[in-house]
User: Fold this.
Amino acid sequence: MTSYRPDIDGLRGIAIGLVLIFHFFPKFLPHGFVGVDVFFVISGYLISLKILNSLSTKTFSFKQFYFSRILRLYPALMLTTLAALIMSWLILIPTEFQELCKHVFYCAFWGTNFSLYQETGYFDHSSEFRPLLHLWSLAIEEQFYLCWPLILIFLRKSKYFFQLLICGTILSFLAYCFLNNWDVDHAFFMPWARVWEFLLGGILVVWKRTLPSNEKNHLILAGSLGFLILSQILLIDFGPSINLLSCLGALGLILSGNSSSLSKYVLENSFIRFLGKISYPLYLWHWPLLALFKLTHKSTLSFVTNFSLLGFSVILATLTFYAVELPLKKVSKKILFFSLLALSLTTLVIGWMGSQSLLSPRNHSPAIQKISNALNEGDYLDHLVKKKVVPLNFERKYLVEGKEFRVYVERLIESHQKTILFFGDSNMQHYFPRMEELAKDKVQNRKRIFFTSRGGCVPFKGIRGKKTHSKSCTPYLESIEKFIESHNFDTIVMSYQWVDFLKENSHLYFENEFGEKDFIGIGNSGYSEALNKLDHLLSFLSANTKKVVLLLSSPYGEKLDPRQALNRSAFSRAWVNNNQISLDSFNESYGKILSDIKFLTQSHHVYVLDPLDALCDTKDCFALTDSGEPKYFDSLHLRPSYVREKINYLDSFIMNNGDQK
Assistant:
């Protein structure tokens, strides 16, 4: 057995502090999500130490190991999961409750991360409303616990054991770096892209060296804290750099031990150690409270509200630790095991029934069901993958990525040689259902349709920013240009959410010759450069086709999100009202951007199509139709069924006999 390390409890306290600040006050610590990476390093170290010590004394037992993990994790997990189910039943609507129950079901099989990967990205706007989103990290830890003892037993007697650990760490980290550029959600949720963080802790255990002297401990601890601080204050794009810095910081803090006097002030002070002791239940409680509270409040939560929720999370975590976790250690392990088994089976059954819509939340009515149906739509192209529609194989590495609709789909409508190309970001994707609907009628004389889109990418080469605005966006645009040059298109239609990425507070930028960021939002230094790049793109398109159509942004805003039409409370049933944004306010905010784009199109004889004319009346843009059906899937994208049935302003370009002049 190993002696208690108070400094590791302190490191846990730092890790949970980073996560809490990131979730409750993200502007203060935009990279606080790396607290989870720190937890992974700690787990890798402690579990490897425990297993290797048991193996060296020939006392290791699979049964005992897995039994101890269950007893450690499940009491608090079952308590918070059941509490989240009860609170969710009061607040959620059918689609949301069904999704939550699916997460509960997957949780029983340690697979929540796989479920979430199929649905959403951790940093997507809709993710903040998922009460059990945070269980992705627990699932990865559980998967590590499941596999790691087997791997250690198999490899530890090899004379290349240490080298194999290092190679595995490097390969996993390289996989994380690669996936972070091409599929950030895969890199975030999948265990093989995260195992390098656990292996770093294992490497430290296997590395047989005596801890350095106290003087060196000071230096290691100070340097490691510097890595953690650096990971938070550097203006580095989202990516492996942040994760690596934080993991190296955690590794150094563990290496420094608890013999340093500096450690007693930094890691072993009573407050930090207290946070570390309650870090597990605190992690479990804080997110469901925050997510469900956001659903009941349409406006951004104030500092005071967030701070109060944080305080309440600490209270619940403290009660869970002292009133549940500690007392249960004195209970017979056999009784505790079967009690946890019964609770697990109960949540499993509830999760399955809810995921199959056999259980309904309190909030259900015909009006609410319409909102629920809208939230359940959004997979504009994924169904084509399920039908095994074969993508055209050109520049496949850039264009074929089904997870975020980054799909190149060729829809052939025979009987005419004229062709039309549609390309853009997710603002183009939401028009696909209408095109598919028109394609069903092969009797009518329509053009041959080519469709490609990549969510999150903008039509400016060299753009930088977060997440999907990665290095792959420029090659994607170059691939489209090559394709256009090699085909004789009759018409090209491009659609982007122009005002969203050109708005004043846009995070997108170009990097100038001095390494400085020229942000492209209106009023910033990169705005004119963005317009120049658009001007060059329009010139290129006009030179390579007979007709170019630029589709302006559809109206967007939080009030158009179907969730915002719901009025929720834990104390009463939800009800629906129709929200709207005024055209005056939309034009006041984005009119200059739209005017500048329209001005560019004039010199290239580009046809401009404005969705505002079809989606709004003379004064307002409403979230719901007169019959209460939502027009939108979220705050940015139109609902597929609404597009399929109602949006016809692109029809004339697809019809061979109805070309607009």
